[in-house]
Prior knowledge:
With 313 residues, the chain is α/β, with parallel strands linked by helices. The protein has ten helices and eleven strands. It has one domain: Alpha-Beta Barrel (TIM Barrel), CATH 3.20.20.140. The longest helix has 17 residues, at 147-163. It is globular. The two termini are 23 Å apart. The mean pLDDT is 97.
Amino acid sequence: MAFTRTVLGDISTSELGVTYMHEHLVIDSNIVQNQFEHIWLPSEEDAIAEATLCFDAGVRTLVDCMPMGSGGDIKKLRTISKKSSTNIIAATGMHTQKYYGSKDELLVADSETLATKFINDIEIGSQNTDIRAGLIKVSSSGEKLTPREKVLFEGAAQAHKVTGAPILTHCEHGIGAIAQIEELSQLDVSLSNVTISHGDKVNDTSYHTEILSSGVLVEYDQCLRQFSDKTPPSAELTLAMIERGFLSQIMLGTDGARRTLWKSLGGEPGLAWLYSDWSKVLLGVGLTDDDLKALFILNPAKALAFKEIKNVL
Length: 313
């Protein structure tokens, strides 16, 4: 049975239902509060309210992509999951350097140390709990990976090979996907176990064709920022990539960390809008109901499945 790991335990991937592939329900650290207050999301109650709106719209699974140590809180995610009735998948791994203190040991750890931490978060429990992560998050900030980012990717690859947990990447400003793909390929990670995030920040069909031709999965997540556009570029990009034969590799999320996007905080259009209304936008540009089923249900079920482990390092 193909399974994924939620904060409430392992479930069959057939139970995931409509899935958002890149969310931020909790971002709570002194660094974020002091330097990035527009994405400071410390409240369980606010997240429960927003996740419940998503559930009421038909969403069943939310992938939280803030690794523990950069503002994620796995205890809060468990509470949010229980009280909103949504499946929540938590991330281990690392975000970009700006979310860590200058003396944080993770910033100087070698790949083996990072791999050990990621493996423990997935197999034992994160943040001194028995709540386990179900995803490995990695990030890069430019067209090419820095030496430090290569250490992170190596640690993530090691952890993936031991645990079978899927990998999801952050592309700053949407760039750097090709370098990420090349690095993970060199590390002998099957690209069918990798999801590239934020690529639709770059509206270039040639770039996306090159990304998807590698066999990697992608999630497009700029829709909430385009909710008032008459011709949203991410909708047109999604259609173009489907017409080029990549339907089975594309998924959707909101990357909705900004407080101004949450209905529960007085913002708009709200995280639920992705499924309730962006679906209508996609149908309007030419997608079908079967396409939407692939984007929201079938493809995430593949992307979030743990790989069967045959050879442990």
